[in-house]
């Protein structure tokens, strides 16, 4: 009978023991993230890198100087003038580490920055904004859910920090998304942070469930960090061959102009010919004056951006914010208002500048050819301008002096609503 019971349940017990060992055993037994993995990850922009913690922590603590660059889809456009190609070709002493994917916006980056914690202290960081982030509704459910990191969210929710207006607002924003609402344990933790008045104690059962889930996510991150896919390092190595051996920004801009000219056809928007024929030309007539109501001057993204700025302030990171241009000719064609667009640039510039961050406004290049490869994505001459700005920023040894968060952020948004107050 004992033998039969063992034959039946023994394999299950062994499998359970192995699972528990993998889950709760010392991380050192599985090996840490290697330096070669970090190098591959620098251009990967894969979910493992962007939504994880292990590789980013290693990147910040390795002896090599990595420069975190936060952004979205524009970072994936690797041509000879891309910051990773530029920095490696001209041995600038730093390697850009790309953090972002299509659809990543300030709220996702906020969780990532909080997960990095004090490892960012004193580090140089670049943050590339995108005007299209600042839609009236902010980041939508689809894009936020596609880039959401449960591990980073749990690290935020379980951090032993006071319920500041920033923290309460962040929790309230996270709770507005379905991907968070579908996780009962995480929702309970965030509701406790977001709720007005004194904090209530989270039940022991909820805390145990949260700790177990975070442990599973951490170990998953540890294991997935061993194999990185989609590294663009080969492309970075190949593209260096197109650059002159001696760095001269005037010559580099001229070369980028030639490079752009050779890739743009006869369309009036200076859009790469392949993109134009595939994405624009088939519906060009329907697109004329199709976005007359386009506006970026009112959006929850401004508050989400403030979360990012306050997260950087709290750890003492030295940050350069870059605001790219738009394709002016294209904006005119779709009927978008230049005046409304300028309101966005003015508002975001004031928000960043007044709080003591480095800031590079590229809006003056909206009508300059070959700064963008399509309607919104940086390329060619745009990268050259950014390469120089980043290089100057990396040489600047001045320590940042940040200012307090303006009163218009968070406070009104974290006060209880009438419905909440009546409960």
UniProtKB/TrEMBL annotation:
It comes from Listeria riparia FSL S10-1204. The lineage of its organism: Bacteria, Bacillati, Bacillota, Bacilli, Bacillales. The keyword NADP does not apply. Pathway: Cell wall biogenesis; lipoteichoic acid biosynthesis. Belongs to the DltD family. GO terms for biological process: lipoteichoic acid biosynthetic process. GO terms for cellular component: plasma membrane. This is Protein DltD. Keywords: Cell membrane, Membrane.
């Amino acid at each position: 009978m004992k033998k039969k019971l063992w034959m039946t349940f023994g394999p299950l017990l062994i499998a359970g023991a192995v699972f528990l060992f993998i889950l709760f055993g010392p991380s050192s037994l599985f090996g840490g993230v290697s330096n070669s993995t970090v190098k591959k990850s620098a251009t990967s922009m894969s979910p493992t890198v962007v939504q994880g913690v292990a590789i980013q922590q290693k990147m910040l603590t390795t002896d090599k100087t990595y420069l975190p660059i936060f952004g979205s889809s524009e970072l994936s456009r690797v041509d000879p003038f891309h910051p990773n190609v530029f920095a490696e070709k001209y041995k600038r002493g730093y390697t850009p580490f790309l953090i972002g994917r299509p659809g990543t916006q300030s709220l996702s980056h906020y969780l990532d920055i909080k997960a990095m914690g004090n490892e960012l202290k004193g580090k140089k960081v670049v943050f590339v904004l995108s005007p299209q982030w600042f839609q009236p509704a902010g980041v939508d459910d689809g894009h936020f859910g596609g880039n959401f990191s449960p591990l980073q969210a749990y690290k935020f929710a379980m951090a032993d920090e006071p319920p500041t207006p920033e923290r309460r607002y962040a929790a309230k924003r996270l709770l507005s998304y379905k991907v968070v609402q579908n996780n009962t344990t995480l929702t309970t933790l965030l509701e406790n942070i977001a709720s007005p008045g004194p904090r209530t104690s989270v039940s022991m059962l909820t805390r145990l469930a949260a700790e177990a889930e975070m442990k599973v996510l951490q170990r998953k991150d540890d294991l997935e960090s061993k194999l990185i896919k989609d590294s663009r390092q080969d492309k970075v190595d190949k593209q260096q061959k197109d650059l002159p051996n001696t760095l001269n920004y005037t010559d580099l801009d001229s070369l980028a102009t030639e490079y752009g000219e050779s890739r743009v056809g006869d369309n009036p928007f200076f859009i790469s010919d392949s993109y134009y024929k595939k994405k624009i030309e088939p519906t060009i007539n329907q697109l004329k004056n199709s976005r007359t109501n386009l506006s970026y001057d009112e959006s929850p993204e401004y508050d989400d951006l403030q979360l990012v700025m306050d997260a950087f302030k709290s750890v003492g990171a030295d940050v350069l914010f870059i605001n790219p241009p738009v394709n002016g000719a294209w904006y005119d064609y779709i009927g978008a208002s230049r005046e409304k667009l300028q309101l966005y640039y003015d508002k975001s510039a004031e928000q960043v500048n007044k709080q003591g961050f480095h800031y590079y406004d590229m809006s003056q290049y909206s009508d300059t050819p070959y700064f963008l490869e399509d309607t919104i994505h940086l390329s060619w001459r745009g990268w050259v301008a950014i390469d120089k700005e980043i290089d100057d920023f990396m040489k600047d040894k001045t320590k940042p002096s940040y200012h307090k968060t303006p009163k218009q952020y968070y406070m009104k948004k974290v006060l209880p609503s009438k419905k909440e107050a009546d409960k």
